[in-house]
Amino acid sequence: MTDLSTDFTRTRAAFHLPSGVTYLDGNSLGPMPVAARDRVAAMMQDEWAQMLIRGWNEAGWYAQPRVTGDRIARLIGAGDGQVVMGDTLSIKVFQAVSAARALRPGRRVILSDSGNFPSDLYVVQGLARAIDSDLRVVEPEAVAEAIDDDLAVLMLTEVDYRTGRRHDMAALTAAAHDAGALTVWDLAHSAGAVDVDLLGADADFAVGCTYKYLNGGPGAPAFIWTHPRHADAAQPILQGWMGHAAPFAFQPDYEPAGGVERMRVGTPPVIALAALDAALDVWDHVAMPDLRARSIELTEAFIAQVEASCPDLTLNSPRDPARRGSQVSFRHPQAYAVMQALIAQGVIGDFRAPDVLRFGFAPLYNTAEDVSRAVGIMARILREGSWDRQEYHARAAVT
Amino acid sequence: MTDLSTDFTRTRAAFHLPSGVTYLDGNSLGPMPVAARDRVAAMMQDEWAQMLIRGWNEAGWYAQPRVTGDRIARLIGAGDGQVVMGDTLSIKVFQAVSAARALRPGRRVILSDSGNFPSDLYVVQGLARAIDSDLRVVEPEAVAEAIDDDLAVLMLTEVDYRTGRRHDMAALTAAAHDAGALTVWDLAHSAGAVDVDLLGADADFAVGCTYKYLNGGPGAPAFIWTHPRHADAAQPILQGWMGHAAPFAFQPDYEPAGGVERMRVGTPPVIALAALDAALDVWDHVAMPDLRARSIELTEAFIAQVEASCPDLTLNSPRDPARRGSQVSFRHPQAYAVMQALIAQGVIGDFRAPDVLRFGFAPLYNTAEDVSRAVGIMARILREGSWDRQEYHARAAVT
Asked: Which domain holds residue B233?
């Protein structure tokens, strides 16, 4: 176990944060770790350029997806050898749901909720059409009662990408298990944001991305976790050579590797993994309970200050911090224009249709000063109606 | 159209080639373009670090997969707007074959050959199991006669990863079409190696990787091409938000984007695409007929010199250059040890089980001097039997 003594002054200093910017959009794309640029340059020069093909063994590129996976495992309550990196989150959703569904061959229903990120629903729609399953989508509050004996897979994003509402992973997993179903948890807005405990919740599969709170850079690779009880039984539809038991034997037939490594598909993204590796260094001495405590401090302060000084905004997130992730959203009829005015004044959050202002609080680098500066600027914009007098042409940003 | 005046002295100088190394493994991993390291560092510093989330629009990250796709299109005989980047080659094989199969709903057979790269076969085995299809695998020479009226999809790698044997894309595509089937061509060992003409051959789908002859770096993103006649009809199983008609409308249901962009799935690998973009600059003034001519010169010289000075080796590639890609392989009972001895003396090719020595010739940077140096060293090793007196511990390299 790493020695954990969380020092948020140190972690904040580990990021490049442009001056004049209050960045509350780390739930969409984390900022660049100071060390990332040189780490990538060194990987390219010392490994790719010098070792050429030999880098696969000599520089450890081949093993990197599981080495990096082990670093992430600690942040999500998983064990060594249970997480592997690669592809994108959408691909990993496909793998996890298809593998879970195949473990419940007699059942056809995949249940999700309308607060799930649309891409997860798109992926499951495509999968369900191919493998003769039904995707059932209910309101987030109705998930528990929709679990019945037809259910094969419960597929949820733990923290809602718009509202920040956090599902009770342990309770819903237990309910799914009681009904004979398996769970797939998308940790896109959880990993690095809250104290995830996959093993403690007894979840079955989990997936996530690394470009949000884990700060791996735009398009950084995704991860997938399989509970050890399923790791050698899960049979993914996406069978690639890197998930083969003997990739370099070049056998004509697929034979899955042992454990979660069968969830590897193609050649790993080595350059991107170097950037992510530098980003994960920042987490080395961070204790997740400290992270969660700081996250709650920041979001509680933000809600209190906004409600005190921005009467036109309506809270769109759960008020109870136990039911919330590390982001907060508010509604305003002119949310798009208000967000553009905020961005023009250096406060970067984002807009989600039709009327949502979304703010992410990343405990590694956001501070109480970020909270008060953002609220002060937003209060002035709303008071003066200055969002109404400007022209904004920016397009919607990426979640 | 770009002005094309191929200057191979310029293109060779564009790569970092370690001194003392004769690199004949660009068919596995291309060397680093000199400009790539600084291009990636600039993207990270000027775009990610400075623009943060705004980079998706301001730096053009969102559009990058099709902008880069257009650069590759020229190299494979495709048109603008027909190629899009992302994921890995295995994922793209899955997308192309599933889309082609869905366009032939009444037919169950997917035909490939035993010279195909194993991962392509693994992918199709997994797909076929899921969607109730049959994968039929025949010898490369038997493909033409195995095409019949049950065939839905002919899925071939144009250039064999071991022997370098090149299929006749136009003839086999015509035969498949005559039988009512569609074709998927894997260009892993073709793109940047030979004069591919997808539109001329009237192919249906094509996929490829960019870390071999296109020199995009380890794990560089893959590409997929759809013939315009299928681009708006192809319905991929992998439905991700980046392939949605309106990704940022966050609609609950998937609606495919027009054209090949529906083959996008998740968030694009922006850092890796920056490295690839630098690599594609090298191709700007290269005429593909010049490339093909130089490739044939190099492989012809290599075969002639090896056969003159290495009597223990047996040619494992077609002798007719028209039936060969840009790589040559020879067989030797102790191929593994011989390759280790070659590598120890700075000649990097690779070994393929059980007895194959494989050498790739990348016209952009390999020269007649590379050919004669490699053959000279190999002839001495074989004459002296010095491969027999060394201890080799290296593990097999990645294809």
From this structure: 37-281
pLDDT digits (tens, 9 = 90+) for A351-376: 998 999 999 999 999 999 999 999 99
For position A27, which CATH number holds?
Answer: 3.90.1150.10
Q: Which of A247, A281, A315 is the last residue of a domain?
A: A281
Q: What is the pLDDT of residue B396?
A: 40
Q: Is residue B150 part of a domain?
A: yes
Report, as an integer, the average pLDDT of A39-63. Answer: 97
This complex has an ipTM of 0.95
| Distance in angstroms (rounded) separating the CA atoms of residues B33 and B276 | 9
Cβ contact (<8 Å) for B126 and A237?
yes
- Residue A212 annotated to the active site: yes
Residues B23 and B48 in one domain: no
Q: Is B211 annotated as a binding residue?
A: yes
A239 touches B at CB < 8 Å: yes
Which chain A residues are closer than 8 Å to B397 by Cβ? 53-54, 56-57
Q: Are A102 and B212 within 8 A, CB to CB?
A: no
Q: Which of A281, A296, A330 is the C-terminal boundary of a domain?
A: A281
What is the four-CA torsion angle of A105, A108, A113, A116, rounded to 10 degrees? 60
Split into its structural domains, chain A has a count of 2
Q: Supply the pLDDT for residue B145.
A: 98
Amino acid B2: pLDDT: 52
Choosing from A211, A213, A359, A365, the catalytic residue is A211
Structure confidence at residue A390 (pLDDT): 55
- pLDDT tens digit string along A146-175? 999 999 999 999 999 999 999 999 999 999
**Rounded alpha-carbon distances, angstroms, from residue A190 to A47, A157, A160, A207:** 33, 9, 9, 10
Residue type at B339 in one-letter notation? M
pLDDT at A191 over 80: yes
Is residue B80 located within the same domain as residue B132? yes
Instruction: Judge if B315 and B331 occupy the same domain.
Output: yes
Residue tagged 């090896």 (tokens): B306
Please say if A294 is a catalytic residue. Answer: no
